[in-house]
Amino acid sequence: MKTMKKVLALLVAVLMALSMVAAFAENPTYTITVNSSDNHTYRVYQVLTGTLSDANSKKLGNPAWGADAKDSTADVNDFIESINATGLDRDDIAALVTAAVNTNGEGQGTVDKEHPKTVTPGYYVLVDETAEANLADGETLSLNIVEVVRNVTVTAKNGTTTSDKKVDDVNDSTGASQTGQESADYDIGDHIPYTLSATLPANYADYTKYYLQFQDDMSEGLTLDTGSVKIYYGDSDTTGASISFTAAEGTSYTGGQLYTYTIADVKTTASALSAGDKIYIKYTATLNDKAVINDKGNPNKSRIVFSKNPNWDGTGTPDTGDTPWDIAVVFTYKTVFNKIDKETKKPLTGADFRLDKFIKDENGSDTYKTVKGTWTDVTTLGDSKHPSKNVDTYTKDTDSAANAKFTFAGLDDGYYRLVETATPEGYNTLEDTYFEITANHTVTGLESLAGTDGAQFNMLATKAEGKLEADIENGQGTQLPSTGGIGTTIFYIAGSLLAIGAAILLITKRRMGSDE
Question: Cα 123–124–127 angle (5° rounding)?
C-alpha cells in the first residue's frame, strides 16, 4: 500500500512538471532592450499576441488582438493578410501596424537603456516619448518602431536638424570681402549681408509632413531691410524667391525685434529636397544710429523650430523642437581727436575738422595712396557702392572749457584722412593726416583695435569703448624776432650805418659848396 502511494505521488509530480513545461512553452517571455548608445525612452504598446516557433522567429502564430489594439472587434486575420501583402516594405508594414494601435493609454510601460522590458510574444509598437530636455541639440524623436518581439535590441530611427547664421565682412578701402563669418565690422548706415540656413535631418524621408520655422532676433542697432529677404531651397537654387519676415513677440534684446518665417510643410513647398539638403534665407540689415560702440558689438541671432516627430501626420499642431541660437556680431568704432597747443599741450579752440574715408574703386590696387578710388567725407558718405548711406555721427565738443574735442562715431576698419577745415587764429594749418583703423574680432568680442599710419601718430585704443584717440597739435605761425634779440641788433646797426652815411653825404655836399 505504501509503495502504491509513492508511485501515485511520483506520477502526480511528473504530471505537474509536464503541465508547467507545457504552460511555459505556450507563454514564454522575451526582453526588449534599448541600445546602449540610445538615450531615448519608449512607451511599449501591444498590438497582437501570439506564439513564436523559437526565440529567433519573426513569424507570429495563432495571432489575436493585443491589449492596446485600437479595434479588438475587427477580423484579426484580415489584418494579418494586409500586412503580409506582396510589395509592402518594412515602412509600409510599420505604418499599418501603428495605425492599428491605441497610443493614448499607458500601454505596457516604458523601456530605456537602463530599464529593459519583459513581454510575451506579439507585435509591439514602441513610441518615442523622450523629454525635450533629454534630446541633443537639434535631435528629432524616433519614427515609431514596430517589432515582432523575441529577444530584441532597438535603436532610435531619428536624425538631427541643424541651423547656422553667418555674416559677410567687407572693407570699403581695400575691397576685401569675407563671406560666412561669425563677426564683422561696418560703418553705421551700411547694409550688412546675413545668411541663415537649416539642414534637413537624416531621417527626413520618414516624415509625411515636415514643419520648419526660421526665427531671427535682431538687437536694437540693426534695422531689417524689408525688401531684401529671399529664400533659397537647396544649393542648386541660385535665384531664390522674395519673402517677407513676420515681426513677432519674444525678442531677447532690449529694443530689439524678433522675426519669423514659417514653412508649414517643406515636403509640399520644396518636394525635390531630401535628407541633408539645406534651406537658406538671405537678407541685409542696416547698422543704425542706435548701434553700440564697444567691445561686445551688435549681436543678431537665429535658430530653427522644426518637426521633431516623424510620426506626425500633418493634423493638429506639430510636435516641434528647436536648434540652439547661433549668433553673429557686428562691430563699429569711433575716433576722438583732441586739438591742443603744441607748446602748452592745452586745449585749443577755433579749429574744425573733416574726416574722409577712402572708398576703393572696383579695379584699383590694394594700396590706398595709389589706388583708383575716392576720399569721401564720412559725415555725408554716399557713392555708387553705398547709395543710401547716411553714415557716421560727427560731434564737436561744446564744453565751456574748450570746443577742442572732435568725435567721429560709427566707423568701419579701413583707410582715413583727417583734414583741418578751420585753423585757430595765429596757428599753422595742419597737413592732412592719414591713418588706418584695424581690428580683430570674434563672436565673443573685440580682440584688438588699432589706428596708425606708422609715421605721423599712433592712436590710443580703448578696446572696451571701441575708441581710438589722438592729440592733434597746432604750432603758431612764424614770429618776428623778440626785443633784444639778434634781429633787433641788426636793425640798430643798419639804422646807424644809414645815419652815418647820410651825415657823410651831407658834410661832403657842404664842403663841395664851400669850395665853389
Answer: 155
Using DSSP, state whether 92 is helix, strand or coil: helix
Residue 344 has a CB neighbour count (10 Å cut-off) of 8
Is residue 42's pLDDT more than 70? Answer: yes
How far is C-alpha 310 from the chain's CA centre? 27
Q: Residue length, the chain?
A: 516
CA-based nearest residue to 417, from 325, 337, 485, 489: 337
**Are 459 and 448 contacting, i.e. CB atoms less than 8 angstroms apart?**
no
Question: Max Cα separation, the chain?
Answer: 203
Is residue 216 within 8 A of residue 258, CB to CB? The reply is: yes
Give the closest residue to 282 by CA, choosing from 374, 216, 200, 184. 216
Q: How far apart are CA 359 and CA 237, in angstroms?
A: 32
> Are 445 and 327 contacting, i.e. CB atoms less than 8 angstroms apart?
no
Summarize pLDDT for 21-33 with one digit per residue, the tens.
444 445 578 888 8
Tens digit of each residue's pLDDT (9 = 90 or more) over 292-312: 999 999 999 999 999 988 888
CATH 2.60.40.740 corresponds to the domain 162-331: yes
Question: Do 181 and 168 form a contact (C-beta atoms < 8 A)?
Answer: yes
Is the CB of residue 390 less than 8 Å from the CB of residue 373? Answer: no
Q: What is the DSSP string of 440-482?
A: EEETTEEEEEEEE-SSS-BPEEEGGGTEEEEEEEE-B---PPP
Q: Domain segments of the chain: what residues?
A: 2-154, 162-331, 333-474, 481-516
The DSSP letter of residue 432 is P
Answer yes or no: are the C-beta atoms of 426 and 476 closer than 8 Å. Answer: yes
Cell of 207: 516624415
CA dist., res. 214 & res. 260, Å (int) = 5
CATH fold of 333-474 = Immunoglobulin-like (2.60.40)
Residue 97 near residue 116 (C-beta atoms within 8 A):
no
pTM for the model stands at 0.73
Do the first three CATH levels of 162-331 and 333-474 match, i.e. the same topology?
A: yes
Distance separating alpha carbons of residues 234 and 375, to the nearest angstrom: 41
Cβ contacts of 358 within 8 Å, gap of 6 or more = 172, 173, 368, 371, 373, 374, 375, 376, 414, 415, 416, 417
405/469 Cα distance (integer angstroms): 10
In 84-111, which positions are buried (b, 16+ CB within 10 angstroms) versus exposed (e)?
A: eeeeeeeeebbbbbbebbeeeeebbeeb
Give the integer Cα–Cα distance in Å for 397 and 291: 21
| 163 half-sphere exposure, CB direction, 13 A CA radius | 25
